[in-house]
Amino acid sequence: MTVSDKQKTVLCYGDSNTYGYDPVTGHRLSSDVRWTGVLAQLLGGGYRIVEEGCNGRTTIFYDPADPWKCGRDYLKPCFNTHKPVDIVILMLGSNDLKRVFNASAEMIASGAEALAADIKDFTMLKQGYVPDIILVSPPEIGPDIASSVFSRSFDVSAVSRSKQFPELYSAAAKRQNCFYFNAAEYIKASAEDSLHLMPDMHKKLAEKLCDFIVRINDGNVSPDDKPASDASVKQAYVSDGIIFSGDVEKYITEAVHDLYYRLDMNCARTTLTCMSRIFGVDITDQTMDAALGMHGAGGAGAQCGLVEGALMFIGLLMKKNGCTDAEVVDICKAFGEAFTERFGSLRCCELRPGGFRADDPPHRCEGLTVRSINFLYEFLKSKNAYVRK
Asked: What per-residue confidence (pLDDT) applies to 212?
């Protein structure tokens, strides 16, 4: 049997609309009604459909109530379980609109792009080739979401932000050399809860995706939907080692505020989190735990947590990219010298605006943190030969 003749595996990675949540009963739709099941019927025996939908799944965000629903964390075990995978249908982003994440449409699209980049890297490593990836821009949130049963999780801004997805997801797909599919062109959320799909929408989505997959196999996909053929554009993007799309400075500003005031992270952990999202580096729980007391040695005014978090991230990024220990040390030294020249010190007690007082407001260093993380980002870009092998 040749590769072209074998049964193709289609992995559908998504949230409750891939799981098949019934907006009327709150239970799961039957397999012959879910779009994944209908797609299996339409494509026939030459395809094996793998349903990997999870209620509440996000792209890269951690829900304090259910942190295990982060899509990025489960991605690698999922693909390792089901490999070899030939086609991926990636439809995530709706849950990222929850008010708890305070995420812009740009941040959410960047999360989806990070997953696409991870899929490419991991599948090449584990199965020797990259599957066809269909990045799906999710359907729009319904207009009545703020008065629906999910009003505790979503506010009215989710509607307008979801309308920005098509343009942002399309651009992300082009950068990652993926196929792009705009679900909002064909389907809409139910009137029942403004979030989930009714059976007729599942059927329509399956029909449109089936047609799209057939056209991919026939090489008959619209130029707007197929991966970019300009390798130089792709290489210019990849060579930076950066998976983030959009305005990095804007993202850092928004993310720092969110991590400080929603999750009460310290400066070191905030630095690690921001940079991990921008450069696509996994940060383990142990690493985050190690940074718990790094805000000036627990507030003692010693080496600044912005510096400590930056040095930790430099080590993680460079070792991920195959650099030697000596190279890591050299770059860390160079960063320390550059940071001192830019900000005047490495010590928290000298960098903290106004020093330390008993009546200090929370997260007084927010502005400094934004400037520091931007500085680290620019520093790493300037050291591309080391941070991206």
From this structure: 96
